[in-house]
Write a structure and sequence with these properties.
The protein is mainly β. It has 3 helices and 35 strands. The strands form 9 sheets. Strands 1-31-30-29-28-27-26 form a 7-stranded antiparallel sheet, with no helix packed on it. It starts with a helix and ends with a strand.
C-alpha cells in the first residue's frame, strides 16, 4: 500500500508539472464567451481555419485596423492554446481593395499553412499571391510570398489543394479563363510552362480543385452557355496527371448540363480518394432550387443518373446551400442542406445519405435536423465523424434578420440525432455573425470561426470548438477513471496486472477497460505503464521493472491523465502532495 501511495504521489506531481507547463487545453468551454482570435479596431473579416496534425489549427483573416485590409494568421496547438502574439502574425499589408473576394488556406504535410489570396500591390487590379508559413511563423516563400499571377485581368477567389505527393496546386479565375499552377513545397514551379490555362467560348468560372491519385488533381468549374449573364452555367470537370497532362479530354467531362447555376450558387467538389470526385450543387431546373450530387469516376465517367441525383423528393420544398461528407470506409456520402417552403418564408436544416449506387438511404425526403420555422439557417457545414457527422450552422433569433446564434447537431450513420439535448449552442451571444469557416481535427473536434459584432460593430474574429460527444472545450478533460498500471481494472496495481496483460497479448484474455478518448478513439490508459500513449508488450516489461524496483514510478500518457485530485499537504520538496482520486 505504501508503494502504491508513492506511485500516486509521483503521478500527480508529474501532472502538476505538465499542467504548469501549459499542457492543459484552452479550447473555450463557455458558449457565452467563445475565444477571441482578433479584436483589433476596425473590421476583422473572412476568417479561414485549417487543422494541423497535432489537433491544433491555423486561423487566417483580413483586418483593416491599419486602414488597409491586411492579412493575419494565428496558430493554436492541439490543446487550443494560442501560439503567436495576440491578434496574430501579420502576413501581408500590401495594398488591398476596399472590397474583398474570397481566398483559400490549407495545411501541407509538414504542418505549414499555405495561404492563397489576391491584392493590388502591383497596380489597380487583383493579382494572386501565395505564402507558406511554418509552425514557428517563418515565411518560407519569402516576406512577400510568391507571385502566382501578374496581369491586368480580374482575378477573384483562388483555390488551393495539396496533392497526394505533397505538392501544391493553385486554381483561379482570370476574366473568362481559369488557370492552374503547381508548386513544390520549396516554392519551385513543377510544370513547364508553369501555368495551365483553360478557356471556352463564353467563359469559365468558380474553379474548385481536389487531389487525385499519383500526384494528379481533379478540377471542377462552371462553363457559361451563352454570352449574357443570365445564360445558364453548367458544371464540367477536368483531370490532370502529375505532369499537367489532361486525362479527360481538352473540354473535360460534363457533370451537369441542364437548368442553370447563378454566380452565387457555386458548386463544390470532394475527392472520392480513388481518383475521382463527388460534385454537389443546387440549380434552377424546373424553376425550383434543388440539391444534386454526382459521382465522377476515375476515368471521367458519371457513376450516377445523368445530371446528378436529387437528394430530396420532398413535396412543396426547396433545397439549397449543400455541404457534403464522404465516408471512405463505406463509400457512402452524407449531404446536409437548407430546406425551405416554396415561398422561402420558413427554413430548416435537413440531411440525406446516398450509398455507392446513389440511392437515397434516409427516405426520399431526407431527415430533419432543425425543424422549419421563420428563423433562417445558413452557412451549413457537415464535418465527418467516426460514425456520422457534426453539422454546424448559423440561426437567426426569432424576429431578427441580423442577430444569430451558432448551433451544432450530431447525427449518426443511420440518420439518428445522437446528442440530447440537441442542437447544442456553440455561441449563445446575441449578435450579428457572418462568414463561418470550419475544420475537423484528428480528434474529431470541429473547430468553427466567424466574424462577430458582439463588441465592435465592425466585427471581430471568434472561435469555438465542439467535441464528438457534443461538449464544448477540452476533449481530454483532466481526469479519466482509472489507476495507471491497473490493467485488470480492479483498482489496485499488483502482479496480477502483469498476468492479465500477458494473457491479453497472447490472445487469451480481454483488453483493459476503455479508459480515455485519444486521437479520435480510445486508449487503454490503465495498461499504458510506460506513458508512451500506447498499450503494448513494452508496458508489461515496464511494469515488471517497477515491481523489481528498476522503474521508480509508473507513467501515464500526458493526454489521458487519471481522474480526481486529493490534496494531502506538502511533500519534502515543498510541492503540493496530491493523489488521483479513485
Amino acid at each position: 500500500m505504501v508503494r502504491l501511495l508513492s506511485i500516486r504521489l509521483m503521478f500527480v506531481l508529474a501532472l502538476l508539472v505538465f499542467m504548469s507547463a501549459g499542457g492543459w487545453a484552452q479550447w473555450p468551454e463557455d458558449p457565452a464567451l467563445n475565444m477571441i482570435i482578433s479584436d483589433q479596431v476596425g473590421a476583422q473579416v473572412i476568417s479561414k481555419v485549417a487543422a494541423t496534425s497535432d489537433g491544433g489549427c491555423y486561423v487566417s483573416w483580413y483586418s483593416n485596423a491599419s486602414g488597409n485590409y491586411d492579412l493575419y494568421l494565428q496558430k493554436l496547438n492541439g490543446d487550443g492554446e494560442i501560439q503567436w502574439v495576440d491578434n496574430g502574425l501579420l502576413i501581408s499589408n500590401h495594398p488591398q481593395e476596399t472590397w474583398l473576394t474570397d481566398y483559400d488556406m490549407t495545411v501541407d504535410g509538414e504542418d505549414h499553412a499555405i495561404i492563397v489570396f489576391n491584392d493590388i500591390r502591383n497596380g489597380g487590379d487583383w493579382d494572386i499571391y501565395a505564402y507558406r508559413i511554418s509552425p514557428d511563423g517563418d515565411f518560407v516563400w519569402g516576406a512577400d510570398g510568391l507571385t502566382i499571377s501578374d496581369n491586368d485581368g480580374f482575378e477573384p477567389d483562388p483555390r488551393v489543394t495539396i496533392t497526394s505527393n505533397g505538392n501544391v496546386v493553385i486554381a483561379w479565375k482570370e476574366d473568362d479563363m481559369v488557370h492552374l499552377r503547381k508548386l513544390t513545397l520549396a516554392g519551385d514551379d513543377f510544370w513547364d510552362p508553369s501555368t495551365i490555362t483553360l478557356t471556352s467560348t463564353y467563359g469559365l468560372s468558380a474553379p474548385q480543385v481536389v487531389p487525385a491519385e499519383n500526384d494528379g488533381i481533379v478540377l471542377q468549374l462552371m462553363v457559361a452557355s451563352g454570352p449574357n449573364w443570365w445564360d445558364p452555367q453548367h458544371i464540367y470537370a477536368h483531370k490532370f496527371d502529375s505532369d499537367g497532362v489532361e486525362q479527360w479530354g481538352t473540354n473535360g467531362v460534363a457533370v451537369m448540363t441542364t437548368g442553370g447555376i447563378a454566380a452565387y450558387m457555386k458548386p463544390d467538389i470532394v475527392t472520392d480518394e480513388n481518383g475521382g470526385a463527388y460534385s454537389f450543387w443546387y440549380d434552377t431546373r424546373n424553376l425550383e432550387h434543388h440539391v444534386y450530387v454526382q459521382h465522377i469516376l476515375t476515368d471521367g465517367s458519371m457513376d450516377w443518373t445523368t445530371n446528378g441525383v436529387r437528394v430530396s423528393l420532398a413535396s412543396a420544398q426547396l433545397q439549397m446551400d449543400p455541404s457534403l461528407v464522404f465516408e471512405p470506409e463505406t463509400g457512402d456520402i452524407l449531404v446536409f442542406y437548407k430546406a425551405t417552403d416554396l415561398g422561402q418564408t420558413i427554413f430548416g436544416v435537413y440531411g440525406q445519405k446516398l450509398n455507392t449506387n446513389g440511392e437515397r438511404q434516409w427516405g426520399d425526403g431526407g431527415v430533419v435536423l432543425a425543424l422549419m420555422n421563420s428563423q433562417d439557417h445558413w452557412d451549413i457545414y457537415g464535418s465527418k465523424q467516426d460514425d456520422g457527422a457534426i453539422v454546424t450552422y448559423f440561426e437567426y433569433l426569432p424576429g431578427s434578420a441580423v442577430n444569430s446564434l451558432v448551433k451544432a447537431i450530431g447525427i449518426n450513420d443511420d440518420g439518428v440525432i445522437i446528442w440530447d439535448p440537441s442542437p447544442v449552442e456553440m455561441s449563445t451571444v446575441i449578435s450579428e455573425k457572418m462568414h463561418m469557416a470550419i475544420a475537423v481535427n484528428i480528434n474529431n473536434q470541429v473547430i468553427a470561426t466567424w466574424t462577430d459584432s458582439r463588441i465592435d460593430d465592425s466585427g471581430d474574429v471568434y472561435l469555438q470548438n465542439i467535441n464528438p460527444d457534443g461538449t464544448l472545450g477540452p476533449l481530454f478533460s483532466p481526469g479519466c477513471d482509472y489507476v495507471p498500471g491497473d490493467a485488470n481494472g480492479d483498482g489496485n496495481v499488483m502482479g496480477n496486472d502483469v498476468t492479465y496483460s500477458v494473457r491479453y497479448f497472447k490472445g487469451l484474455g480481454n483488453p483493459p477497460p476503455d479508459s480515455c478518448p485519444y486521437n479520435g478513439g480510445w486508449l487503454y490508459s490503465a495498461g499504458d505503464a510506460n506513458g508512451n500513449c500506447s498499450y503494448a508488450g513494452s508496458d508489461v516489461t515496464f511494469l515488471v521493472g517497477f515491481f523489481k524496483g528498476i522503474n521508480q514510478t509508473i507513467l501515464w500518457c500526458p493526454d489521458t491523465p487519471p481522474a480526481g485530485l486529493v490534496v494531502l499537504g506538502e511533500n519534502k520538496d515543498g510541492m503540493p502532495a496530491v493523489l488521483p482520486g479513485k
